[in-house]
Structures are given as structure tokens and as C-alpha cells.
Amino acid sequence: MADVKREIERKYETTGDARLPDLTRVAGVAAVDHRGAIELDAVYYDTEDLRLAAAGITLRRRTGGADAGWHLKFPVASGIRDEIGAPLSDTLPPDLAGLVRSRVRDTALVPVVRLRSTRDVHVLNGPDGEPLAELGVDEVRAQRLHGGNRATAWTEIEVELADDGDPAFLDAVERRLRKAGIRPSASHSKLARALAETSPKKKTPPKKPSAKKKTPPKKPSAKMEASPEKRQREPGPPPRTAGDHVLAYVREQITDIVALDPAVRRGLPDSVHRMRVATRRLRSTFRTYRKVLDRTVTDPVGTELKWLAAELGVDRDQEVLDARLRTRLDALPRTLVLGPVRARLRIWSTARRSGSRRRTVAVLDGARHLALLETLHALLADPPLLPAAAGPPGKALTRAAHKNHERLAARIARALEHPPGPDRDLALHDARKAAKRARYAAEAARPALGKPARKSAKRLKAVQSVLGDHQDSVVARDALRTLAVQAHAAGESSFTWGLLHGQEEATAAARERELPGVWAKACKAEIRSASGG
After folding, report:
1. 3-class secondary structure, 498
2. Which of 30, 48, 315, 521 has the greatest number of C-beta atoms within 10 Å?
3. Is the Cβ–Cβ distance between 496 and 336 less than 8 Å?
């Protein structure tokens, strides 16, 4: 993977007679090292319809300065981005291409903007001489390379926090700049400003004269005046119909799948789990709302989502199991850890996870995943809505939630009819799947049904948690039996493995005792009626 840096910076406008103030008066600044001016030349790449810009992502090839090369930036929070760099080359490095693949898919990346900047660099140093931040006064010249040939120019101040610096320091710098009449920039990046200011303006044909009394034209709204790039990022009208609400939830899951693809490739914490959950939520929504979405379209998509979730689960399931067994082992007194237990667990885990990350990235690079992304994009562009989608949301969403609740009730009752053992374990696992589906149905209905849906989703999450811990215990016991057999065959003591197996049995029994009470609370919160129908 290319180099990654957490970029924390703020941008400011320079207007009127504002001048850069004495920065040594900023708390913590002992000296300002004026490094002089450098010339930067960057070409920004995107699809013709600016998909990266719409997501706040920037991809550029820059020459000049100490960090010449390719830079890909992902937004993290306001003023915070992860910058992934790669050495300068004529073509986009494969690692960076993979990180934008979920958004661009097979669409070509083209040069969209060229930014040439003269940067006057000032380094703010602390008492020990260590840099606290770098302040650059940038004279920017922007030229549109695609979709017109317009140009614009401006001057801005950029303050970037030093590595491992305290973000509160930027507040102190901002206070000093504000006193000098320098205000925060209205644009979050140079690219966003360049696109907005060089966006082709549509010509409005002149109106024919009318004999009617003329009224002054209405002032365009901010949304009307916004650039196409900005309008693309703005949400649409609030959902009104059942179809609107279901599609809003579908769009949320698809957005997560697309956004988490690069996070999984980068190995970010919990990214695999979150992406897997998004695929499950989406597949569950297709199955739950078959009266709203045409299943002849969504069923094949659901099959592909099931495949993707299974592929993502290869590494995730082992990760969860490893963490569970290590936690159990760490909680034992040393006197009860007999033999090379930790070493055996480590070797066993490494063998099972070997190559799993490479396999996950290979799946994301594969043609099947790319085809799924194209299908999801097409589904949002032309939703397969059925006539019931045009109706009010209350009745349709309540009916779907109730149906899922009944399915869950039947599976829990069936599971509890079995005596403790493998048959009950399997039935409780089936109940867990139904609990997830019921919870996701309640989540999708929450914007339309309000508090009842929120309460139901919360109670169903508790049921899912109990059933999930029970299933994790089943999986852990199976692994512990395997480890005990391996230890015995190697002439090691299997005492500790048997002890952990007993603890897992006790956990499963406790969850089975807990289930009826948690389920009773979920039944009280069942969505039974909707006032907004």
C-alpha cells in the first residue's frame, strides 16, 4: 500500500487589505521560519461526471515541492482528510486505482482541472524548535481541462498541522488570523473551488414579451445558484411514499458498500464488518419489501450480495473468533494455563488467516464485484418499483415489519422446543438470522414510523445480540475441540482447552436462559400500527 498521512488543515480567504499577522504572537509559537516560495503544478483527475468530486475525494498528480507524486485524499471529518501518496509516474499507480474503483468502476479517469500555485511557506515552530504547523500563502491559478476551458484565480491561506500535533493549536492560529481580518474559506478544497468557479454556465433563452403585468423575477435560491457538482451532493426531497422510504434505506446501504470498498482495501479497523453488514441489510431489505420492489430484479442482486458477504466473512469470522479465544485465555489465572497454549492458538490462527486479506482484495478487484457495483448503480438510477410503492408508507412498512416479527417469533418458539444440544443450537442460529432481518426492517421504517420503529429496532438488536453471542459460543466450542485434539496429538496438555470449552458451554446456557426475557421485551415493542399512513 502507498504512504498514508492524516492531513489536518484549515483554509482561509484573503480579502481587502488583510495582511499576514505576526504569528509569533500565537500561543505556543516561539519562532516563524520563512522558507520562501515554491511552485506547485497539479492536475486533478476524475470521471466526466465528477464522481470523485461529488464524494469529496481528490486525485491529483503534482510536481514541485517536497512531496511531488500522486495524491489521493479521502474525507474523514471537517478539515481532516487521509492523504495516500505514491511516487511520481506517468500513469495512475495500481494501488490508487484500486482505491477509487468502487466509484469510477470501468469509467475512464480524465484530467478535469489544472492548478498552478505559488506557495509562500512559513513554518511555525515551538520553543524546542519542533514544527507545530506549516502555513502557506497560495496564489492559485486554476484552469478547467474538461467540460470547458474557463480559468479562475484566487489567493488563500492554508494552515496544516504538523504530524501528531494538537488540533487545538489550529484554533489559536485561527484566532490570530481572524483578528487580522482573515476569514475561513467557504470551500473545503482548492479543487472544489476551481470546479465551482469554472463550471460551465447554462445560457437562458430570452423570454417572449407578454401583455400581462410584469412581476419582478424571484431571486434564485442558493440551491439554484449552486454548481452542478454541489447540487449533485445535495439530498433530494424528503421521502413521502413507501417507495421513497425503502429506496432511501437502499441508497444508504449502497452508499456504504461503495464507500467502504477502499476502507477494506486499506485494512481500516472494522471496515470488513461494516461492509458485510451493509450487504446483509441491503439483501434483507430486498427480501422484506417485495411488495415495493420487484423481486424479479432484486432476487438476482440478492444472490450476488450473499456471495459478497460470504467472501468478506472469510476473514471477519476468524477475526472475531481469535479475539474471543484470546480474551478468554487472558482472563484465566496463570496456574490454569498449562502448556504452550498461546503459541498453539497463534499458530492455528495464523494458518487459518494466511492469505485471507489478499483474497479479500482479489475479490474486490474481480469482475464479479465490479458487475455487482454496476448493477447497484443501475438499480438506483432506475428503481424496480411496484404499484404499492406509490402508496403511503405507514401501512406497507408496518405490514412488512409485522411479517418479519412473526417469522422471528416462530423460529424462537421452534428453537426453544428443542432440548439443549446441536438441534437447538442450529435452530437458534436460524432465529438469529430472522432477528437481523426483523431489525433491519424496523430500521428502514424508522424515518416513516418514528418512535415505535426506533424502539422496536433497539429491542430487536438486543435479541440479535443474545443470539449472536450464543452462536459465537457454538463456533468457539468447535474450535476449542479442534485445538484440544491437536494439543493432545502433540503430547501437550489439553486441560486449558477443556476449561475454555466449559466456559463457552456456560455462556451458551446463560444466553438461552436470557433469551425469553429479552424476546418478551421485543414483543412489547412490536410495530403494530402506524399513524402516518
Report:
1. helix
2. 315
3. yes
Among left, alpha and beta (phi > 0; psi -120 to 50; other), residue 61 is beta
* Nearest residue to 84 (alpha-carbon basis) of 187, 102, 94: 94
Lookup: cell for 521: 421485551
Contact 157, 138 (CB under 8 A): yes
**In contact, 483 and 348? CB cutoff 8 Å:** yes
- pTM of the entire predicted model: 0.83
All three cell numbers of 227, joined, read 454548481
In three-state secondary structure terms, 378 is helix
pLDDT band for position 531 (cuts 50, 70, 90)? very low
C-alpha–C-alpha distance, residues 99 and 113, integer Å: 20
On whether the CB atoms of residues 40 and 117 are closer than 8 A, the answer is yes
pLDDT at 216: 40
Give dist(CA 42, CA 191) in Å, integer.
10
Partner residues linked to 239 by β-bridges: none
Among 23, 19, 24, 29, CA closest to 182: 19
Short-list 375, 361, 297, 347, CA closest to 482: 347
pLDDT for the residue numbered 205: 56
Task: For the chain, give the mean pLDDT.
Answer: 89
Reported as a single tens digit per residue, the pLDDT across 234-291 is 455 677 899 999 999 999 999 999 999 999 999 898 899 999 999 999 999 999 999 9
Rounded to an integer, what distance in angstroms lies between the CA atom of residue 469 and that of residue 507? Answer: 8
Cross-strand pairs, 34: 122
What tens digit of pLDDT does each residue of 308-335 get? 999 998 878 888 899 999 999 999 999 9
The DSSP element (H or E) to which 121 belongs, if any, is strand 110-125
DSSP string over 216-227: PPPPPPHHHHS-
Q: How confident is the model at residue 2 (pLDDT cuts 50, 70, 90)?
A: low
